[in-house]
Amino acid sequence: xxxxxxxxxxxxxxxxxxxxxxxxxxxxxxxxxxxxxxxxxxxxxxxxxxxxxxxxxxxxxxxxxxxxxxxxxxxxxxxxxxxxxxxxxxxxxxxxxxxxxxxxxxxxxxxxxxxxxxxxxxxxxxxxxxxxxxxxxxxxxxxxxxxxxxxxxxxxxxxxxxxxxxxxxxxxxxxxxxxxxxxxxxxxxxxxxxxxxxxxxxxxxxxxxxxxxxxxxxxxxxxxxxxxxxxxxxxxxxxxxxxxxxxxxxxxxxxxxxxxxxxxxxxxxxxxxxxxxxxxxxxxxxxxxxxxxxxxxxxxxxxxxxxxxxxxxxxxxxxxxxxxxxxxxxxxxxxxxxxxxxxxxxxxxxxxxxxxxxxxxxxxxxxxxxxxxxxxxxxxxxxxxxxxxxxxxxx
Amino acid sequence: xxxxxxxxxxxxxxxxxxxxxxxxxxxxxxxxxxxxxxxxxxxxxxxxxxxxxxxxxxxxxxxxxxxxxxxxxxxxxxxxxxxxxxxxxxxxxxxxxxxxxxxxxxxxxxxxxxxxxxxxxxxxxxxxxxxxxxxxxxxxxxxxxxxxxxxxxxxxxxxxxxxxxxxxxxxxxxxxxxxxxxxxxxxxxxxxxxxxxxxxxxxxxxxxxxxxxxxxxxxxxxxxxxxxxxxxxxxxxxxxxxxxxxxxxxxxxxxxxxxxxx
Lengths: 395, 262
Ligand SMILES: Cc1cc2nc3c(=O)[nH]c(=O)nc-3n(C[C@H](O)[C@H](O)[C@H](O)COP(=O)(O)OP(=O)(O)OC[C@H]3O[C@@H](n4cnc5c(N)ncnc54)[C@H](O)[C@@H]3O)c2cc1C
Ligand code: SF4
Ligand code: SF4
Known about the structure:
The complex is a heterodimer of chains A (about 400) and B (about 260). Chain A has helices spanning about 15, 25-30, 40-50, 55-60, 70-75, 85-95, 100-115, 150-155, 160-175, 190-195, 195-210, 225-235, 245-255, 285-290, 330-340, 350-360, 375-380, 385-395, and strands at about 5-10, 10, 145-150, 175-180, 215-220, 240-245, 255-260, 265-270, 295-300, 345, 370, 380-385.
């Protein structure tokens, strides 16, 4: 087998992932959150993958599918390596051979055929809009904020409220906005982490072309996964991409938006890996929550870049871990209970779904709930900024 | 081993509400996604597995629109070698017998050892095409096959019967096998493979190209007329029959007789 190099675009595996840069310090494995429940040792793969002859065998080690792409290892690596991408590279070998888990295969095929990994028809992508008078973007019409919903928010009833409440808020606050029609297509975040490079490249090409046609000042992504993926993997996008919490924080700061009413709740904010660690948006979601009267915002011990991963990313929605050890989301929920939180707030559809499952698994439904920030805001009256209404909030 | 695999592009009706079109003669498919018929996906995998084991080649045959090319390319990315897509509006394609005649027209003059179809297409659920195809080709068949063992000019087909029973039949080649879902685990067709499959041959043909006379497969030839489609009304009428087993059986029998059902 020697001489038969596993190359991508003429680069060897070692070159592509800069494996020789690794000094085997072990900070990646040391910070990897899933090591408490699986045998994944990412440092081992960074080391062993240097040997091209081992790649095939390494790609068949089950643990490579335990990585949640939380990026802790990449944040911690002193040499600037992205250890997780070595695991993704190994996953690619499996995907190229066609021998993926059926659940992964179905998610990938659905993304190719219908533009979403949830095996839903493209034609029903905007069904969440029913009953709302949503402005749909037209390529030749100018708009300030062009919204990108996300496949999960569009199709999963648990998190559709994120988009629905956003529409109501935008209309009340008089923000210039539009949503994409059913040609909105998966950003490829999870396609990338599942190791389907070819499909990911295709999505980047098609989405760049589609999004560049719109006369929008910027794109506002509802999911941190789309937000981070656009900013890190779409070099040719012709407009900036922000996360919706950044838009809300901006509107609050410019006094164009205010919330009326009170919510006397203790809220703990969970930093999603893709919003926090990966894109360093830490303060804006907190500012939005703090703008609600009555809210007592508390912090997890592990917050901001140290936030504990919920295990919803890295394609884990389609790959079940064998481990019987407590899920990280359950650990997170127990921590939230210890803090006496009424609400665990998150700003990511995957976090909401996994944390919500953990609340049910622990049987804490009576005492606490998981809510997307947009769900929390729904309980308040949204008013168009102007100093008068802003004052009412301060009253 | 020379193989043909018949695949059909069908709507997935599981995710969107099924509504009739304005004329009431078909289903409004604007909100459905289309994909390879489930059983046919397994048939493709089975033929590719046999090709990998015994060498040979697989030709995909499909009657369908241009939009189904993506499905055909996926099958070729998985290992099928070439494809014939038949597109002709004159085919009475609601009638499985007509479909089988057209498929036979594409296969009959060529050398083949095995022809695979799915056991049933999800759209109309007739479960007839494969068997009819075998009859027209004049070769033996096994329907609802859950396992295939090829032996020297013969094939052992493990068939799934009602109630989950298994029957093993030995038939001589060439033969037609209609494949039941679950026989294998269909592989994923990576996008790079689909792009490479662009190089494989995909012949688009009509009835004239095939030499199949329209009088044999058109609406006039079909004995099946689709008069009307309707969504059954959900009713909640139920009669609970009480009594010991003998009494129950007697009451039930008299209901069936009165209703003219037996
Ligand atoms: C509900 C039901 C249950 C049955 N259960 C059993 C059972 O358990 N065991 C048993 O032995 N028999 C069973 N039978 C009967 C028997 O197996 C069938 O008569 C036989 O399998 C024929 O199926 P078919 O594939 O022709 O049907 P169809 O549904 O008409 O066609 C299915 C296949 O034909 C091919 N095809 C159709 N249209 C096209 C096209 N446009 N282009 C290319 N290919 C096409 C595809 O491969 C497709 O999967 C059952 C029948 C029914 C209706
Ligand atoms: S943290 Fe970076 S340098 Fe250290 S072992 Fe991991 S990959 Fe190597
Ligand atoms: S991305 Fe997270 S889960 Fe994956 S190897 Fe790195 S630290 Fe571990």
